[in-house]
Amino acid sequence: MGRILMIDDDRELGALIKQSVLQEGIEADHCVDGKAGLEKLRENGYQLVILDVMMPGMDGFETMARIREKTNIPILMFTAKDDSLSKVRGLRAGADDYLTKPFDMDELIARILSLIRRYTRFNQQGEEPARLVFDGLTIDPDSRSVTAGKGTYELPPKEFDVLFFLAQHQGKILTKQRIYEEVWREPYVYDDSNIMAIISRLRKKLEEDPGKPRYIQTVKGIGYRFNREV
Predict the structure, then answer these.
(1) 142 phi, psi to nearest 5 deg
(2) Could you write out the DSSP letters of every residue in 134-183?
(3) pLDDT on residue 191
(4) CATH 3.10.20.30 describes domain 2-121
């Protein structure tokens, strides 16, 4: 089904994950530090990177920044339990999802499969959704990119999926629960860090003034709405 790269200094965990994903038809390579992981990423094609925050030398945040300079491959981040600061920082820096250690292996597998499906879906045969064109903004599902006043961006998977879902329902108020369940394809767990971080990153890329968003509007206490007036 695919091939993933793990960057984590925990060798035992790496071996366990490698064995578990292989049962799903997914090959996995494991590197124990960020430098080796970046070299491996340059050498091979992957559908997902699993990245631990706490590593000696180049930590997960620096490694993620280096990855994001080159590719929009999905990144699943591992954080320590109750380390909400790392979760938010990681999501704002470009992670697509996160899990806290220790975690349930079945949940990890489900998240891996979900991220791989979304990353590869637009390459599958079949009719693609049409481009969405608004005043000053074009969303292209074929290239998974957007063109706005600040330029053209090939968005990471979760960013594009959230934006496209909102834009497809222009003018409708969408709850955080509905957005989460549609984009992540799993039950809503009342953790809004993912959505909030993604909305923040989108606004920085799309809006002339992120503090006064024109496209993605916040509906306080409920969720978000793509502006019906654009």
Answers:
(1) -70, -45
(2) ETTEEEETTTTEEEETTEEEE--HHHHHHHHHHHHTTT-EEEHHHHHHHH
(3) 66
(4) no
Give CA–CA dist 44/118, Å, rounded: 20
Domain extents for the chain?
2-121, 132-226
- Cβ pair 140, 186 in contact under 8 A: no
Q: Where are the alpha helices (DSSP H) in the chain?
A: 11-22, 34-43, 60-70, 84-93, 105-121, 157-168, 176-184, 193-206
CATH 1.10.1790.10 is held by the domain 132-226: no
Residue with tokens 């250690």: 101
- Which is nearest to 40 in space by CA: 20, 1, 10, 70? 70
> From the CB of residue 84, how many other CB atoms can be counted at a distance below 10 Å?
11
132: which 2 tokens? 């969405």
**Whole-prediction pTM:** 0.61
Question: Residues 194, 97: contact at Cβ < 8 Å?
Answer: yes
* Res 167: pLDDT: 93
Q: Please report how the helices 105-121 and 157-168 are oriented relative to each other, as an axis angle in degrees rounded to 10.
A: 70
Give residue-wise pLDDT tens across range 158-196: 899 999 999 998 988 899 988 988 888 778 776 677 888
